[in-house]
Fold this sequence. Notes:
globular, 3 helices, alpha+beta, two-stranded antiparallel sheet, binds zinc ion, about 190 residues
Amino acid sequence: MATKTAIKTAERKKFAGKIHEVVKWPDPVLAKRGAEVTEFDAELAQLVEEMFESMYAAQGIGLAAPQIAISKRITVIDVSFGKDEAQKYALINPIVVSADGKQVEEEGCLSLPEIREKVQRAERVKVRAQNVKGEWFEVDGTELLARALLHEIDHLDGVLFIDRISRLKRELVLRKIRKMQKNGEW
Ligand SMILES: [Zn+2]
């Protein structure tokens, strides 16, 4: 998920790993269901670190592996954008256990730059996921965290937020994208 406004990343410490490029719609990897992760090894831990750094570099508060062309059920979220270690979540094979209430807020996506639309989501969610060691844990999220969890888990199922808006709004968004593509801005 994209942040509302650009945040300065200059103060962030140097990162030795790879910063992955975020793929844009309509890359077919974004429409695919990601594969379950079965190996919880050093390679996975490294990938998760790279995903966090790629997310910060792209000014995001959430990033799913399909967005860096890796079709696996891995996502990272930090709605504090690097300010609070306790709000950093790496979720492997996440499952939405419960979702209640309703919130309608503007949403953006790193794979759909410049596009922001109001999307209805649950207000509260409970998600179960594995950590990089393969241990199961639960996250309770409300408001922005609930939205980020649902947005990122959608990515693992090949669903984008523009799939959750009205057909008319989606048509307008696609028209805007086509125009940007034509102008070489996409
Ligand atoms: Zn997204």
